[in-house]
Amino acid sequence: MKYAIISDIHGNYPALQAVMEDMKEQCISGCIFVGDYCISGPWPDKCIDAIRAVPEKYVIRGNEEKYLENLIDKDQSHWTDGQMQVSYWCYKNVSRNNLDYLLDLPHRVDFECNGMKIHIAHSSVDFLGTYPFYTWNSVTVANRSRQGNRTPEQILSDMIDERDKDPSFQEAVAKLERGVYIFGHSHIQCSYADKNRDVYLINPGSCGLPLDGIQDSVPYTLMEITDAGDVIIEEKRIPFDKDKYIRDVMQTTQYSEANVWSRVILKEQATALEHMYFFLKFVEQFAKELGDERRPYALDTWENAFRIWDRKIEATEK
User: Fold this and answer.
1) Is the dihedral of CA 218, 143, 36, 116 positive or negative?
2) What is the pTM of this model?
3) Which CATH code is given to the segment(s) 2-239?
């Protein structure tokens, strides 16, 4: 049995299309979808429709689905802040049928294939605890990329090598029973295999918003469970025209109605590096300096913070 594993689509339907086209050539038995299907890209319904059309699949919720759930039956006249604009836009532009589908999804799925147990959750925290995720993540990649002396592939290789030697990581893995553990959330494609214990970790990366520094491609992962119960993992990268994607996003109502969030996300698309984390830290400091305790951030605080932060980023990148 061979499965395609896809995570963190984030409303990027063209990227999902590219991955699904490649899947047609892989003789897969089914798909595993690992959460975060909407918010940040402007095609939520198309992404969900495509997932629902897959005949053989396992699908779980991610953390982004909670943002939409929290908006159900809320008074939209109060939706005047800047911070949550993209969630408001997505809520208004996803069909209620598709929203209900998302919110009916389980947070975790476990099944068995050829004698091998498969466990699926959106975050590695479910299996490994907090330390590995908060140490080896997209912020780490971005910070190391600023040093400028390593390629993205070398940075990822260094991180994986350090992770595998980390006593805290090894201790967490040692507690896992035999099986395959699938998760996403970090937006970084990586895998781990302890063949002596038959323990495998798979993160397919982010199909819709990769933050691993590798540009002009989007990732997903193939997992084959042989009749004998052996696990074969193949990490895939599919060519993707991000310049066209950025131009297309800029023509959407999401870009006009949730402009700040969209522009930060497009910086992430262009560079394949984390920006949102750093922007949110900047807004928090900016609001504190103003003495503004409103949360979510008010529209004027949100937009003024972005203008200042964007100028700094532009100056840094020149």
Assistant:
1) positive
2) 0.97
3) 3.60.21.10
Cα 140-128-11 angle, rounded to 5 deg: 60
| Backbone φ and ψ of 292, nearest 5° | -95, 110
Tokens 């394949």 -> residue: 272
- CA atoms of 173 and 164, how far apart (whole Å): 10
The amino acid occupying position 253 is T
The domain limits of the chain are: 2-239, 275-318
pLDDT, tens only, 177-202: 999 999 999 999 999 999 999 999 99
CA distance 101 to 202: 25
65 touches 8 (CB < 8 A): no
CA dist list (Å): 69 to 61, 88, 100: 11, 11, 9
What is the identity of the amino acid at 21?
Answer: E
Q: Which residues pair with residue 179 across a beta bridge? A: 199
Contact 200, 231 (CB under 8 A): yes
Please state, in angstroms and rounded to a whole number, the distance separating the CA atoms of residues 112 and 120.
Answer: 11
Cβ 51 vs Cβ 174: under 8 Å: no
Instruction: Provide DSSP, 95-131.
Output: -HHHHHHHHTS-SEEEEEETTEEEEEESSTHHHH-HH
The answer to whether residues 29 and 3 touch, using CB atoms and an 8 Å cutoff, is yes
In single-letter form, the type of residue at position 29 comes to: S
The H or E element containing residue 220 is: strand 217-225
Q: In angstroms, rounded to a whole number, what is the distance separating the alpha carbons of residues 108 and 233? A: 21
Listed in sequence order, the residues at least 6 apart from 288 whose beta carbon sits closer than 8 Å to its beta carbon are none
Token look-up 């949730």 returns: 258
Round the average pLDDT of the chain to a whole number and report it.
Answer: 96
